[in-house]
């Protein structure tokens, strides 16, 4: 690594990073300075994305790798009932990359950062002999006085999911839109008792809520919204060996919001919901600490967390 | 990568992470929740450390790699006149590591985090085929209402450095203590006009202050505190080709504090300084936007930033 190219990249990022009244001190000092509110919870999420594990940069290109690294963190903020303030981007660039590839990566970050008013306020750039690594940390704050957590699901709560699930591997795992607008609109209309974003897959992420809340769930299979990507790629996903709804349950990286709220709050929400992203009731929270799914023929089975299996590398 | 070992590591970190009243929500949700003050600047620093670039883990072991990754960030907070609140640790672990090695790495992080009351409040763990990567982000706040920045040095300011410089390669670049206590004590006694931590080397880091403040400096060579490591390892560093003070000027990774303040403030500070870490006046801020160094024989030369040359990899 030499000093000059690294510093030039930082300067290009600095010029493009944008600003915000919440970030009085951005890139260029030993740390960034943020103006936080003491009547809000300051939220911090971080994720490290690795070439060959979370994406294959030779296939998707630097732009989508960079975009995904920010997007997964914005999805985490949305899942807390939060909005963003600033992002921090650390990258280890393969030594054989040229400036254009590094710029493309940062364009993926910066365009999404601009869209959601989450200026890049700091980070770290290195080059090395290894594969691309991107770590993003985002700082945000709860929209209301406190955040929405995984713990808090109440017996009798309705379980709701945004969007449609499954088959993200065909592109959505890179190109998804973090559901910050869903979280904001949701909190205007109703207060979820618990929330998470779907990164590991519905069956695993619901299990995180159940475990944290010490409750169980009953899902109705016919209500699970299956994304059209699953059927569209039916030849590839081999629907004969695994039915479409199983992809919706276990595929992972949907980055939709999964939340629970009282039946009364759900009724209010359902009647007033105006965003084009569907909200679907998929089941109920129950006291028995297990997760069951009821098939279209009325058969009830235990739903085992599918776990997250890395598809690459 | 499999789910189970990764989650077990997270659970072990969670148990050992400690807590703080400033971190109402630590590890275990989509994001951490911090209680920030609106009468302080919230500070965020982040650094990505790579095996073969910032350390060689086969030589130093996982403990010191982990410790360094947090320490460099705490040094950044100190340089802002800040104190810490929480740290966020993302790691990409080589697939052939065992649990003991991962635990050793986290012990290096957690022991330093406990010492400085900077609980690990979140992060991300992955394993992969590449070399070890550690990214740490720290969140802190300014000790006073605002932070001390690189910009702000005034013509007539005294330039002061903590500790002694040079030869960090012989161990201090891994084992240094971040100067959070120096920053705290300093702000009790005086208010620096500008400050930075010495990561790239005195000649480079001073240049950052000068550039940001639109001023120049004159250093006195005989005042530069040369660390005993330089002379102790004189056989290795080849003092015949490069004098000892040149190592103090250019070596880098000293992680001491460099700051400027008025002559009156320096007098107050000097008379009341009680910490065992020396503060040394090394020069003055001048209006001419250049950096000059005056030798022991009175010869004045321009001091060129030595730049940071990675020693490994």
Automatic annotation (TrEMBL), chains A, B:
<feature type="binding site">
    <location>
        <position position="54"/>
    </location>
    <ligand>
        <name>substrate</name>
    </ligand>
</feature>
<comment type="function">
    <text>Catalyzes the ATP-dependent phosphorylation of thiamine-monophosphate (TMP) to form thiamine-pyrophosphate (TPP), the active form of vitamin B1.</text>
</comment>
<keyword id="KW-0808">Transferase</keyword>
<feature type="binding site">
    <location>
        <position position="30"/>
    </location>
    <ligand>
        <name>Mg(2+) 3</name>
    </ligand>
</feature>
<dbReference type="InterPro" id="IPR006283">
    <property type="entry name" value="ThiL-like"/>
</dbReference>
<feature type="binding site">
    <location>
        <position position="308"/>
    </location>
    <ligand>
        <name>substrate</name>
    </ligand>
</feature>
<keyword id="KW-0067">ATP-binding</keyword>
<feature type="binding site">
    <location>
        <position position="199"/>
    </location>
    <ligand>
        <name>ATP</name>
    </ligand>
</feature>
<dbReference type="InterPro" id="IPR036676">
    <property type="entry name" value="PurM-like_C_sf"/>
</dbReference>
<keyword id="KW-0418">Kinase</keyword>
<feature type="binding site">
    <location>
        <position position="76"/>
    </location>
    <ligand>
        <name>Mg(2+) 2</name>
    </ligand>
</feature>
<feature type="domain" description="PurM-like N-terminal">
    <location>
        <begin position="28"/>
        <end position="141"/>
    </location>
</feature>
<feature type="binding site">
    <location>
        <position position="30"/>
    </location>
    <ligand>
        <name>Mg(2+) 4</name>
    </ligand>
</feature>
<dbReference type="GO" id="GO:0009229">
    <property type="term" value="P:thiamine diphosphate biosynthetic process"/>
</dbReference>
<feature type="binding site">
    <location>
        <position position="253"/>
    </location>
    <ligand>
        <name>substrate</name>
    </ligand>
</feature>
<feature type="binding site">
    <location>
        <position position="197"/>
    </location>
    <ligand>
        <name>Mg(2+) 3</name>
    </ligand>
</feature>
<feature type="binding site">
    <location>
        <position position="150"/>
    </location>
    <ligand>
        <name>ATP</name>
    </ligand>
</feature>
<feature type="binding site">
    <location>
        <position position="47"/>
    </location>
    <ligand>
        <name>Mg(2+) 1</name>
    </ligand>
</feature>
<dbReference type="GO" id="GO:0005524">
    <property type="term" value="F:ATP binding"/>
</dbReference>
<comment type="pathway">
    <text>Cofactor biosynthesis; thiamine diphosphate biosynthesis; thiamine diphosphate from thiamine phosphate: step 1/1.</text>
</comment>
<dbReference type="GO" id="GO:0009030">
    <property type="term" value="F:thiamine-phosphate kinase activity"/>
</dbReference>
<feature type="binding site">
    <location>
        <position position="124"/>
    </location>
    <ligand>
        <name>Mg(2+) 1</name>
    </ligand>
</feature>
<keyword id="KW-0784">Thiamine biosynthesis</keyword>
<keyword id="KW-0547">Nucleotide-binding</keyword>
<feature type="binding site">
    <location>
        <position position="47"/>
    </location>
    <ligand>
        <name>Mg(2+) 2</name>
    </ligand>
</feature>
<dbReference type="InterPro" id="IPR016188">
    <property type="entry name" value="PurM-like_N"/>
</dbReference>
<keyword id="KW-0479">Metal-binding</keyword>
<feature type="binding site">
    <location>
        <position position="200"/>
    </location>
    <ligand>
        <name>Mg(2+) 5</name>
    </ligand>
</feature>
<keyword id="KW-0460">Magnesium</keyword>
<dbReference type="GO" id="GO:0009228">
    <property type="term" value="P:thiamine biosynthetic process"/>
</dbReference>
<dbReference type="Pfam" id="PF00586">
    <property type="entry name" value="AIRS"/>
</dbReference>
<feature type="binding site">
    <location>
        <position position="46"/>
    </location>
    <ligand>
        <name>Mg(2+) 1</name>
    </ligand>
</feature>
<feature type="binding site">
    <location>
        <position position="76"/>
    </location>
    <ligand>
        <name>Mg(2+) 4</name>
    </ligand>
</feature>
<dbReference type="GO" id="GO:0000287">
    <property type="term" value="F:magnesium ion binding"/>
</dbReference>
<dbReference type="InterPro" id="IPR036921">
    <property type="entry name" value="PurM-like_N_sf"/>
</dbReference>
<comment type="similarity">
    <text>Belongs to the thiamine-monophosphate kinase family.</text>
</comment>
<protein>
    <recommendedName>
        <fullName>Thiamine-monophosphate kinase</fullName>
        <ecNumber>2.7.4.16</ecNumber>
    </recommendedName>
</protein>
<feature type="binding site">
    <location>
        <begin position="123"/>
        <end position="124"/>
    </location>
    <ligand>
        <name>ATP</name>
    </ligand>
</feature>
<feature type="binding site">
    <location>
        <position position="76"/>
    </location>
    <ligand>
        <name>Mg(2+) 3</name>
    </ligand>
</feature>
């Amino acid at each position: 690594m030499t000093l000059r190219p690294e510093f030039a990249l930082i300067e290009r990022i600095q010029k493009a990073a944008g600003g915000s009244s919440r970030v009085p001190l951005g890139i260029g000092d030993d740390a960034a300075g943020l103006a936080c509110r003491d009547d809000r919870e300051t939220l911090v999420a971080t994720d490290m994305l690795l070439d060959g594990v979370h994406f294959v940069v030779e296939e998707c290109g630097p732009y989508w790798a960079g975009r995904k690294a920010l997007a997964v963190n914005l999805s985490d903020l949305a899942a807390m009932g939060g909005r963003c303030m600033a992002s921090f981007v650390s990258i280890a660039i393969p030594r054989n990359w040229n400036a254009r590839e590094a710029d493309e990566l940062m364009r993926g970050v910066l365009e999404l950062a601009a869209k959601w008013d989450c200026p890049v306020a700091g980070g770290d750039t290195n080059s090395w002999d290894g594969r691309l690594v991107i770590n993003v940390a985002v700082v945000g704050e709860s929209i209301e006085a406190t955040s929405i957590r995984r713990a808090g699901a109440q017996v009798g709560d309705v379980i709701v999911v945004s969007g449609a699930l499954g088959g993200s591997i065909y592109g959505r795992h890179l190109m998804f839109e973090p559901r910050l607008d869903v979280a904001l609109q949701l909190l205007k209309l109703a207060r979820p008792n618990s929330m998470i974003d779907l990164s590991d897959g519905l069956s695993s992420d619901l299990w995180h809520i159940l475990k944290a809340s010490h409750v169980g769930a009953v899902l109705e299979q016919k209500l699970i919204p299956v994304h059209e990507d699953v059927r569209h790629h039916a030849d590839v996903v081999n629907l004969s060996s695994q039915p479409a709804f199983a992809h919706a349950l276990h595929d992972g990286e949907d980055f939709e919001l999964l939340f629970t709220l009282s039946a009364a709050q759900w009724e209010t929400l359902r009647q007033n919901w105006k965003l084009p992203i569907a909200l679907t009731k998929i089941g109920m929270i129950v006291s028995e600490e297990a997760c069951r799914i009821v098939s279209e023929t009325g058969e009830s089975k235990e739903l085992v967390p599918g776990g997250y299996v890395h598809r690459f590398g």
